[in-house]
Amino acid sequence: FPGGKVTASSAPEYKGDARYVNPEEMLAAAVASCHMLTFLAVAAKSRLHLLTYSDRAVAHLEKDTDGVTRVTRVDLHPKVTFKENVTAEKQTSMHEKAHRNCFVANSVKCEVRVNERES
């Protein structure tokens, strides 16, 4: 992290300070940024030029089947625009490839869902 530190807190639901990032948000951000960077590599290999890429990543903190509270799922909602005309099917295929090759998504125990947002 820049400066070697990050100001963090637990989530407000767990008596944390909402002004600061919480670990669940950091996990969602790590998954989202890895997916984005992998998607950019897929696009570059396809010789496609991105104009914009945004995402709204959400980590879901819930009790699992054993009663343990954990992040059970991270939902990504990437929205991408290209310089070229790229079909929805091609974008879905690119997101699937990025998801399969995302180091962070492949490292976490929770489910990661890529829910594309319409332009």
What is this structure's SSE topology?
Blueprint: H1 23-45, E1 50-54, E2 58-63, E3 69-76, E4 79-82, H2 88-101, E5 111-114
Parallel strand pairs: 3-5
Antiparallel strand pairs: 1-4, 2-3
Helix pairs in contact: 1-2
What features would you describe in this structure?
The protein has a three-stranded mixed β-sheet. Strands 1-4 form a two-stranded antiparallel ribbon. The chain contains two helices and five strands, in the order H-E-E-E-E-H-E. The mean pLDDT is 92. The protein is an alpha+beta fold. The protein is globular and about 45 Å long.
Arithmetic mean of pLDDT: 92
Number of helical regions: 2
Secondary structure class reads alpha+beta
Enumerate the strands of the largest sheet in spatial order, edge to edge or round the barrel: 2-3-5
Strand residue percentage: 15-25%
**Overall form:** globular
Helix content: 25-40%
Unreliable residue runs = none
How many strands appear in the DSSP assignment? 5
Distance between the termini: 32 Å
Our Rg estimate from Cα atoms comes to: 16 Å
Q: What is the H/E string?
A: HEEEEHE
Profile the largest sheet.
3 strands, mixed
